[in-house]
Amino acid sequence: MTESSARKPKKIIPNPELPPEKCQHIRILDCDQPVQRVFYECYHCLQGLLSECSGKPVVKEFKGRDQVQEIKVKCPNCGETAIKLITEKVLSTTVIPSPWAE
Questions:
Q1: Hey, which end of the chain has fewer CB within 10 Å, N or C?
Q2: What are the C-alpha distances in Å from 66 to residues 4, 63, 69?
Q3: pTM, to two decimals
Q4: Alpha-carbon distance 30 to 38, whole Å?
């Protein structure tokens, strides 16, 4: 018997299935227009929201490095940060029925 045939193959033990990660529904419209519309659900309370944004992303220097500025949009329903948008400014945020509600 040779040395290679005497070795048993290793058993492959599958990794346990990980729980699903929290995700957020979002749809961006009018990307090529001066004012873009973003439909999304609040990350915390799942309230449907519509934000209107304008401008290009703003790049600022932070600790010697360039970083894109994120604008934290507060949810009018729960007061938490609903989403972080990369844009120059958020013009308005309106509560709407969630298009993804079941």
A1: C
A2: 55, 8, 9
A3: 0.73
A4: 9
